[in-house]
Structure formats: structure tokens, C-alpha cells
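Re-running Cytochrome b5 heme-binding domain-containing protein to confirm reproducibility after the cluster update. Everything else is unchanged from the original entry.
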Amino acid sequence: MSFNQDSFRLDEHVDRIVSHKELASHVGKESCWLLIDGLVYDVTGFHHPGGFNRLLELAGKDATKAFTNIRHSPAAFVHLKRMLVGRLEGESEHPHASVMAAPVESQAITGGSHHRAAKAGEPLWSTRCRGFLPVRDPLVQLPEPFGLLTFLVSRIPVALADGSFSDLVDSHKSRFGEVEAAIATESSEDVLERVHSLYGYIGKAYVHMQAPVAKASAVPQFLAAGWLAVSDKLGREPTIDYADCVLNNWERIDKSAGLTPDNLRLLNRFTGLLDEEWFFKTHVIIESEASGVVSAIYDGFKAVADKSKYKLLAALSWLEQALSHVASNCLRIMFDRGEEDGSLCEPDLFYHRFRPFVSSWTALFEGFYENDDKLAGLRKNLAMVEQLDEAVPDLPDLGMHRAHLREAISALQKRRSLCGASGAMSAILPCCDAFLGVSMTSEELGRMLERFEEYMPSAHRELLSSVRMHCARDFILKLREEGDLQAETLVDHFNACVRRVLDFRWRHLSYIEQYVIIPSGSSNASGTGGTPAFHYLNQHINDTEAAMIGWAEHFSTEGPLSPSVSDAPASLFRAEHPADDFWVVTDQNGLLPCCTPLDWEGLPPDWAEMRELVLLLPAACVPPGSFCTLVKEALPRLPRSCDSLSNQEMKERARSLLSFVVAGWHAAVGEADCLPAELQRLYVEVSTALERAPRLGLTDLVLYNWRVDANLMAKYNDDEKRELTRTESGTHRGTQARLGISAMASVQPSQRFLCVAEEDWFCRLHVTLASGVGGVIAAINRCFDAQNVTEQVRAMQLLEHAIEAQVKIHYAAGIGQPVGFASSPRVRPALLMQRLHRFLPHAEELDISPDDLRAIRVYCATGIDQACMMHVLGIAQGNHAIARFREWQLQDLPCAHRAFLSQLRGRVSIREQVEREVGTRKLTVQQLAHLELAHNSCIDMLLRFFTRRWELVCSMFRETSLKRHWEKERQCISSARLKLLIERRAMARPESDMARIPSYNAF
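Result of re-run:
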């Protein structure tokens, strides 16, 4: 959604001037003022999601930078105006206009801006401040004698590489006694946690250099003593766990800046690989950004305990927003690439180089025993044997008996099967499962999850226990059984939260596929925690889906939308098109013509030579090509004008042929001459008749470049054939029904440049997508026809499903397929543009590099649908290269398509319609909740659609191509999610039972 900057200027008509002295006097809880862009605001009554202490830290100070780091919604700016006191003395009337510009793209990573400050003495693992991250940054320096541990860890990468690490540790074993003694007297949890992490790294690096003993890794007594002691003191296992290598293993480079990838580095490492750094650092970012998830669940289970429906609704809304943020904006960081380094975490390097250090293992702790009574008995027997051997020289040799006793004593040493550091030890998803009532149907996997919890900090385990006692699912089901009127609203939001958890798990499954299954070459590979990773995650996905609450009758409301929302005629997008325009955009044919494209044979005889040139083009354009010579020879036999083209279909086919011939001419090697004048004149004439630019465009390549292969069609049953095509009496020869996934394989291009499978694959994918836009158009019509909230919500649900159908078409073509999806076409997309690009025109006026332009052509190869969906959902297109190309490409598209988009843009977006209700009492909280959820589900699905477009680009080009432009596009889409409940709570007096909902949009 775009905004007018002037409408958000906060410094107009400010009469009161505030002195510096007066500002400095309002710095307490009773009266808290702060400065933003030269204006003074009274924020005393504002409920900040990070706690009021965050505001007190800025009281009497300039908070402009903190405020503008978060890109706020329009409602937030309106609310800010209400807190305006006046202008600070000495400030100009319009200071820093750019600072107070309209809200723009939100930052994908908040950097911890929503974290709460820790209280004095607050427990390290309190979940109040940063979710499951410690409330204070991990200690970098430790008091003596723990300096020995930090020294040894600093030497791990080099000493492991040259094989000297175990010798290095052994050379300092006399000093470990001091460390063990210090652990016994240490009371600081911060210190003990850091010590546990250091022991984990030292211990795993040490045993990595040793040969196994009886299928176990032996930990020498001097090292085991302190490791076991600190583990017992913290209630954790003596191994390297998730808290050791992620939660408590980072430092900020700039202590005053946020928790962002660029400002974090690991404290402990096994290697010097960027990949190790990025892998664990990504998890730190995920934990930081997921603090909103933890806070929402805390409020949610409190609401269940209090039996408060409204507080639960608020918590579910917040949880859905927070989960969406993590799943959409954070998990993808793992796959980031650098300009020079390529993948920042290369899967093969992860799997083979540093994963072994954090994998499951069996430890043998020398000098420590499991059964003290049995040990005492064995030692007593051994002592007796040794005494007898010395006292009675004539006894038979007792050596074998002595060896047996010593082996028995050795076998009593502590032997533990320990899990490796695993993402399953993070409490984020277990907490979601507990709150949403996701149960594990497999007893074996259930036991594994319980075991992983033993590796969590005790505070995290305690929170999980509390959440399990107040499950939202059970509470909502009970409300439904009682016939509560609010039950279905809660069901909607509950199911939305479950879907966001599914999003998280599907993305996590893609982690496993890339970083475990593919490098291992086996689908049975285990994760670092020792679980059968693929089976475990698939089972958990199935169990998560089962937690969804089935639909009863959909909620109903009498509440109308604002009069301005429904005052347009229902037929706005179904009329006002010429009857003979077969490019009219409808819910039946989408962006394809209303009838199948005209065959070449349908053109007048004087166009036969043009057809022949197109048939010769693929072979004649192969360098060094002869195509230009063929064109010159054919010139006398080519049409002199378009007079013989009697209808629009003929003109379309003629222009398509001409576009290919002209593209072939320009692609030919060694031809310096300009396009022959007669050919240029003919091309301009037919393009002018169709009101399109004289250049090869999407219509020529895709929309009017297809046919249904009769031989392939014969394989389908009658119902599938009817899906492919049907005939009807009327103006046109035939009208095709919407082409679905099952029909995609029967679609073939009419004209080709390369004559390879990849060219056919690209064409059929985009023809099928263009046809599928019909479902999107039908849903858009429903959105604009809606007369009340019920109809609007249902229309947006239909829009979500229509966009999802487009996503699935990409899957069927092998783009972004989920793990376990059916087989995809056997094509190599990267080869296509290596050969096709020379036929495509360059747009110098766009100031886009040739490489980026090729990638953008692929990204935008679906036509006006991208602009349509973005406008309907109120998404700002921006001014990046992708947006500029979309507008430029319109001149290559049929007039009817441009007219449709123009009409659509003349309507207020659905987002703006819904936002008009924020801050008013026209709609209830439940109605706002339904609208917010339906709209945000569309946004999430649209982001999924555009992600498939990006993945298509990545499959055809270098993954870094177009990345900076795609990031801007992705941010525009992500930031379009609504926060109606949050904004209403901030702008109007809340319902008496309504919970306070923190927002990521808070400075």
C-alpha cells in the first residue's frame, strides 16, 4: 500500500513551544515526554510492548532514531498525533522531512527492538525479556581460574586441524583441579552457563582426537570432573547442547546495536569456517526474533487460566503475527548467499566438516562410576586378590582374576548416551505445540521429544510445563461445545496459528533436506540430535495438521462494511469490454484469449512465407547463422501491408510471427545491417493496429504462443479433455476452459526459438499460470462485490485458495517443491536463458543491467496478475527494478489487459477498505479479527507465490541475480500484513476484557 507523505506530516499547526528545561522535567513514570523529529510527545499513558522502562530510557531525550528504525503503520502515526505536546524551542517548522516520511517497507529483522530490558537480579533464562535467549548477553571474559577454558577454546580450530588439541589439553591437566574447585563455589548462573558451554567445546574437540574405547568416547578424569560438576549444578547433561552452541554462544560487535547477523559473532567455534558461524548465528537470530512468540504464548495460557475469551483472541492474533514473522523473515536467512562467498552455509561443509562435533555420542567418563556399592565390592575383592598374591607366593597365578576385576571396575564407569546439539532442543516449537495441543502420535518420537527437553535450561522446561496445563485447543473446543458465540472466531485464529507452525516446520524440513539428506545421500540420515530426521519431521507435520479444529458453520455477522466500500456496481469488472475483444480478462480464461490461438493455416496466403521463416528460424539462427540471408531472400514474397488481416485473431498471429522473425534477425551473428525497412514497416503497422510496442513481448512468447497437443490429449479421460478444451457456438471458433495442472503436459508452444524441452517447459508453465489467473479474478470480483464482513472474509479466503493454486502449478513444474512432492519434469532450467537471451530485446530506457533484465523477465513472465494481486491487497510496488519492469512490460500486453489493470487500480484496495474500520466502533473485535486473519492469510500466500517466482529465477540464473530487488519486493509484501487488533487497542479504549498486544512496530 502506498501512502502520501504529506498526510503523515506531524509538524503542521503546532502552536506550543516547549523549552529544553520543561522537557527535562518530564522524565518519570508520572509524566514521560520525549522528542521525535523536533516535536515533543507525552507518552506517559502509552503501553509499550517492551515495557515502560523502554520509554523511561528515552525520557527527555531525542528518540527520533529509535522511532524511525521501526517503520510504522498509518494507525500508529495517527495515534502519535494524539500525544503531541508541541515543538521544542529552536527547532525549525519542518525539520528533517525525510525522517517523518510516510511509513515504508518494514525491516525484515527487528534486531531485538521489541526485547524488554532485564531487571536487576533477573534469572538468566527468564523468558520475559528475550524469549528463550538469556536476558543478558553471554559473558565474554570469565574470572580466574576459568580463563584456562577460554584459552583452550580459542585454540580449538588450529589445534584440531594440526592434530595437537588433545596434547594441548593434557599439558594443562594439572590446572583443571582449580577449575573444578571454583565450580563448586561459583554462584553466578551467567558464569556457570558459560563454563558449561566451554566444557562442551573442549570435551567434544578432545574426544574427536581419540580412538573410541568399547564403542564410547573416553573423557579423562581431570576433564570429566569439572564437566560433570557444572552439569549437575545446572541440571543439564555433560555434553554440548543447543544452549551451549546457540543460545549462550554469541556476542554483539557493537554493544549498543541490535541482534542482527552483521552485529553478532560466535564466542566458541570448532573451525574457521564462515559456514559454522552462519549456521549457529542464524539460530540466534531466529531465537531473538521469536521472543514475540514466547510472549504471546505466555499471555495466551494466562488467558486460558483466567477463562478470558477476549484475552485469548488477542494472544492468538499476536501469536499468528509473531509466527508469521519468524517463518517468513527469519528461517530463510540460513540460505543467504554472499557476493564472493556463495552460500554462507554450504550444506556439504556443514554436514562433513563441523556437524560431527555436535552430533550424538556415547561418553565414558573415566574415574566416575554409576554404582558406588558395587564399585566398593569390586575394589574390595581386587584388594584381597592383590594381598593374597603378595602374602602367599605359592598360590596359582591370579592374573586373569585380577584382570577380570579391573575390567568389571572399568565397566562401572559412567557411560552415557548423549544427544547432540539439535534444533529440537529449542523450546520455540515445543512451546507452540503445548499451547496449541499438538500431540505426538508416535510413542517413540514422543519419548525423543521428552528426552530433548532434558537438555533445555530448567526455566524453559518449567514454562513448557505451565503451558501444557492451559492448552488453548481444549479451552476453545469447550467453548464451542457450550455454543459460545465467540468460539468460531477463536477457531479461525487458532487454526491460523497452527498453519503458521506448519509453515515453520515445512521450512525446517527444507533445512533437513539441504543440510542432512542430500549431503548424506540417504533419506534415513539422522539429525544432530540422533533422530531419524526425515521421518521425525514428516510425522510431526502430520501431527500438527491433525491439531486443526474442524469447521462448524462459518461465522456470520450483520455488520456491513462502510458505505464507500460497497457503493460500486457488482459488475464493474465484468463489463465495459468490446464484445469482439477476445483478450477480455475473465474468471474463465484468466489472461489467455477467450479462444484457442489461431493456427498458422488460418492466415491469408500472402503470409505463407512468414510462416516458412519461423519454421526455419531455430536452425538458421545457430551461430554462425544464415537467418538474415534467408530473410533478405524472402523479402519480395512477404506481405506489403496488413490489409489482408481481417480480424483481431489474424493480427495477433501475424504479429507473433513477425516478432519471432525480427528477434531472429537481431540475434543473428555477424549481421551489422539494420532491420530491412519493409519488414520494420510491416511490424510497426501490425503492432500499431493492436496498440502494442513493436518488440518481442510476453504475448508473443507465452500468451498467444500455445496449442493443445492432440496426441497428448488422447491420453486423458473425457473429464480431463473437457478441462483442456470445449467448443461452443458463437463468434469464436472455440473457448477453452481453465487449464489446470493435469492439462499442463498437453500444452505446447506454437513457435520456438531453440526447439528444446526447456523451452516447452517454460511455455507450458506460464500458459497454465495465465489460465489459472481466472480463479484469482473470480476471487477479486467477490472481494469488490462484498456487502458485509462475512462476504468479505469469504472472498478473501477464496483469493487465498486461488493464489495457492498458482503456487501448486509451480510445484508441478518442479519449482520450489516441498520435500516428498511428486516427481518433476526432467529439465535443466539453467540452460534455457544461456541460449534464449540473445533473442530478447534489451530495454535501455529502464537502466537495468542485461543480467538483471533477463532475470526480471522470468520473474514477471505471468503478466498483469502480479500488479493486480498487489493492488487488491494494498501492497506498495515501490520503485525498484522489478516494479519498473512491470510497468514497462504493460506496453507488450493486450489492450484489454491494460484496461483491466487500470480499472482495478481505480478502486480502493481491500486493505484500505478494511483499514477504514480501524479506530471506529462500526465493527466488533471479532469482525476485525476475521478481516485481519483473512487478509493476512492472503498476504502469506502471495508471498509464497512470489517466492516461487524467485526460486524460478534462481533455477535459471545465479542465485545472487536480482537478489537486492527481490529483497525489496519481499519486504513490501511482508509489511502489508494487517495488525488491526494491535492498532485498535492502541487507538481506542479497549474492551474491558481485552489484552494489551505488543507490536513489532514499537520504538
